[in-house]
Amino acid sequence: MLHRLYRPQQWVDLIAQSHVSQTLTQEIISGSLAAAFLFCGPRGVGKTTSARLLAKSLNCKNRKEDSAEPCNECESCTTIAKGRSIDVIEIDAASHTGVDNVRENIIENARFTPTSSKYKVFIIDEVHMLSASAFNALLKTIEEPPAHAIFVMATTEAHKVPATIISRCQQFVFKHIGSTDIKNRLSELIKKEKLEIDEEILDHVAWRAQGSMRDAESLLGQIVAIAKDNKVTNEDAEAVLPTRKNEQLIAYINHALQGQAQQSLDALHEIIETGANIPHMIDDAIDIVRALLLYKSTQSYGTSFFNASDKEQLKNISESTQTNRLLSTLDILIKRRKEIGLSPIIHLPLEMAAVEIALGAENFSEAATTVIPAKAGIQPQKVKQEAPQKKSPTAIPAQAGIHPEPTEKNKKINTQNIELPTIQKDWQKFIEHLHTYNHSLPLIIKTCKPVTIQQNTLTLSFPYEFHKKRIDEPQVREMIHKALADTYNTSISIETTVNEAQADESDKAVAEVLKTFGGKIVDGA
Predict the structure, then answer these.
(1) Whole-prediction pTM value?
(2) d(Cα 372, Cα 358) in Å, to the nearest integer?
(3) Phi, psi (deg, nearest 5) at residue 494
């Protein structure tokens, strides 16, 4: 495996962690070392490698006084590099969590002087996995360590390490490695292996690694293993890397943003038919929306993996989509990502996301522009979009000699109380008015019942909680209030409740929703 064969053997080989290597090398040269270190950071970024380098530098027989680099030739360096040194003890805390393991492998062992080295170095990987009693036992040794003992603890979850331990350690935070640094490192390995490879494959590997050098080298090693004639082809890469369907995924996202649920689902099903990895698909979809959001804000696509054609499409979509729309889409996809492992149909969360994003399209298009109907011979005025304010509507001055005709929306809204029979009588008319504000809301309203009205506060009863939540959104409530005022010529507010007994009675409305989005009810038996 490449990540083992080319593990850094000197401090200068450590990638993108100069803040760690510079400090440690200075301490090694000066001889002013801490007794305990805590290396924190994501996986695959060099924590354990740095611990081994520290052990080699401290115990190297031929190290120069003005340098921290190990010689990698003496017996101490070679045995440590091979993992055979009896003075460098590596412990996996994930499989040795108990206090007895800590006493036997660390506390008792630390009392004895090194066999052939200057320091006895204890490397405890995933230290956060130790039990509370094991940490308590370790604490006493770290507080009063033997002069010959050095403790290096590594963890991906520093917040799980007790504060009493952290306070007695010199802490170093390792960072994610950038895609550029990863790609440069992979290029060096390809040269050492004397192979030919397409730059696009290296870009893809670097992106898939998500900041982990070990993951990148492991993926590249798998690809190289199946390469023939010293040349890595796209076919070799596709056999190992999860294929990223950018073109189809961009279509999936774009159609959903445009409110085209059917087309979005068609694009999704086209990808699924190729046997794509569903968790990777939704991760890629999230990355695409993230790129749209980044381009909207910074004119940059971030570290995402896109070709020139992809970028052109993303640019056009980003420029025509509101920032709030992208944020809500990202929220929906992240929420649905959590449901992947729980769904009986693995791709169902992606289908739900498509419909949910498409349903939200009308809300954003309704708020985009307000247009005043023009009279003959009068040019319409552009109205700047502003946040709704609780003020009386301002009358538009009439042109000389022209008198605007009264319309339903220009009628003065009265404040008289209204009775439930009146609500029920004109309920269908209300639904028709609501359709002018939003095409999908009437489908939800048809599943509810107006049950009571007191002091012009109308209570609507829904059969399902998710219907109630949808109607309770501030933007949706505002549209309903307007439609009620248009219908009944009075100000009416709403309250919502859930009555599951209505579920059977709402089947017709559910069927209408399914018809609209091209779905069908499937027997789960």
Answers:
(1) 0.58
(2) 27
(3) -130, 150
Give the type of residue at 463. Answer: P
Classify domain 179-240 by CATH number. 1.10.8.60
Phi, psi of 120 (to 5 degrees): -100, 120
The predicted-structure confidence for 96-127, as pLDDT tens digits, reads as follows 778 888 887 788 878 888 888 888 888 988 88
pLDDT at 191: 85
Q: What is the pLDDT of residue 412?
A: 52
Rounded to a whole number of angstroms, the distance between the first and last alpha carbons of the chain is 47
Please enumerate, as own/partner, the contacts of 291-296 that have beta carbons within 8 Å and a separation of 24 or more. 292/253, 292/317, 292/318, 292/321, 292/326, 293/318, 293/323, 293/326, 293/327, 293/330, 296/321, 296/323, 296/326
Closest CA to 54 of 24, 84, 86, 17: 24
CA pair distance 260, 395, nearest whole angstrom: 37
Q: How many CB atoms lie within 10 A of CB 264?
A: 25
CATH superfamily of 409-516: DnaA, N-terminal domain (3.30.300.180)
- Apex CA 11: angle with CA 43 and CA 53, to 5°? 70
The domain segmentation of the chain, as residue ranges, is: 2-173, 179-240, 246-366, 409-516
CATH number of this structure's domain 2-173? 3.40.50.300
Quote the DSSP letter at residue 77.
H
More confident position, 370 or 25: 25
Residue 61 tokens, joined: 């027989």
Cβ-count burial 75-96 (b if 16+ within 10 Å, e if not)? ebbebbbeeebebbbbbebeeb
Encoding tokens for residue 247? 């073109």
Tens-place pLDDT, residues 242-254:
667 788 888 998 9
DSSP code for 41: -
- Angle of helix 18-30 relative to helix 47-59, nearest 10 degrees? 20
Alpha carbon separation from 39 to 106, 127, 159, 175, 509 (Å, rounded): 18, 10, 12, 11, 58
Sequence-ordered list of residues with C-beta below 8 angstroms from that of 274, at least 6 positions apart, any chain? 243, 245
Q: Which CATH architecture has domain 246-366?
A: Up-down Bundle (1.20)
